[in-house]
Amino acid sequence: MEWVLRLGFGGLQNPVLEMYNECDLSKKDYLKTFLEENVVSLESIEFLDTMPVYVIRFTPNTKRSGFVYDCKVYINTKDYAIIKEDFNKTLTKELQKILGTNNSACRRKIKYYKSIENKYYPYLIEYLAGMKDQGYTFSKTEHYIRHSFIMMNEIIPKSKDYKRIKWREKEDENDLLYNREFAYNEAFWKSFNVLYTQEEVTKAKQDLRKEQAIKNQFIENSK
Questions:
Q1: How does DSSP classify residue 102?
Q2: Number of Cβ atoms within 10 Å of the Cβ of 19
């Protein structure tokens, strides 16, 4: 099965890198190709967290069979910086029928940026897709989609500080998270405070409270 995955899908991959690198407009080669393949239009002017933004829509030049693309970029009206990207790729009814599913979800990536010392850095990535990691399974009756988040809780804006640690903290493309050991960071979890509004996440938090402390769960599940 691993050989089949490598041949057809590039093999099992580190899900963190897959989430970060997919639809990455900061890569010049990808941005150039993306602009050549899409038509740009100003859709509207909206407010994002009380900030007025231009909503830019990208529409493919040519129709791609089986998929519907809905790509938007939100640009700050003051300094013209990108503060949000939303790439959504869904399945058409025809392809759903071929795949034997009634779910149109295929891939969606939402990336948020914030300003630090007059430069913008990504701080949150939301990703929905069938990721090519150890949790991926082939099924004729189920459509595998994972809903994942990456939150950058530490951003290093100074170039010299970044260069000093970039190789030490570098992610390996083939380093599967299932095989990695993580140390419990008490300081991080003590101050961890993210507001979730999704119904399923709220239910999960309620279920967790019935069991044991988060610290004990983390230590037990990371063995």
A1: S
A2: 19
